[in-house]
Amino acid sequence: MIIDFLRDLIFKQQKMTDRGSIQMEFAVQIHGADCVADINKTLSDAGNVTIDADKGSVLIETSIPWLEIHKRIEATGRRAVLTGFGGQSAVAIVDHGNESTNVRGVIRFCTLSGTLGQKGAVVDGTIDGLSHSGTFQLNVHECGDISAGCSSVGDLYDSSPIRSDENGRATIRFVNDRLDVNDLIGRSVVITQPAEAGAQEERRLSCGIIARSAGIFQNYKKICACDGVTIWDERNKSIAADRNREAAPTASL
Hints:
- Residues 26-78 form the HMA domain.
- It catalyses: 2 superoxide + 2 H(+) = H2O2 + O2.
- This is superoxide dismutase.
- It is an enzyme of class 1 (oxidoreductase).
- The chain has two domains: 16-85, 2-Layer Sandwich (Alpha-Beta Plaits), CATH 3.30.70.100; 89-212, Immunoglobulin-like (Sandwich).
- It is 20% helix and 34% strand.
- The protein has helices at 2-16, 33-42, 66-74, 231-247; strands at residues 22-28, 47-52, 57-62, 80-85, 89-94, 104-110, 121-128, 135-141, 156-163, 170-176, 188-193, 203-213.
């Protein structure tokens, strides 16, 4: 009971610091003035928006999770790809050590707009495959050694509670004043389920290494060097993979 109370207290405190805006850059297939008008309309209450139709770029400064901005843009009928996130930024692809859980997602960390070099980071992302309407932990561990799955990542460095919705997705967006983006590179993210009654340890559901990622105006990729396809083909491959995962049976957590 005391542990649950403390988790709820920390969660509420973090929600109170769900502040601060960051800049995001999207590559968008824009064709004509109508496209620009539609995107401006759907993002009118989201933050400061700058659209460069010639470059196919949408730049927004906002405190809304990136996935929500992405959904709004694509709801206008235009395809969009996130190409830049904040200033100094890092990302963890959380998809290791999850053979029995199918829990996976992406977590991004970046400095707040106008606070380059200062401590504190926006934590933004989504985790799928969790049990419905549950409380979990987003843990940062000291090292990025996932050679033995999620059991070889070293000691706990930082911990934050997250919650899943009725579909088993945790949509994450808060400011953690304890984190410094520069100090996160090479560490790892581990998603855990709290220990049940009688259990000694939390259950580690999935993990990933934190790596440096492109900030705004730092990603000029039009063709992926890994397989020679355009960013739009890469986007379609990602969607297909997501659909395949949704069709696959998911273990109950």
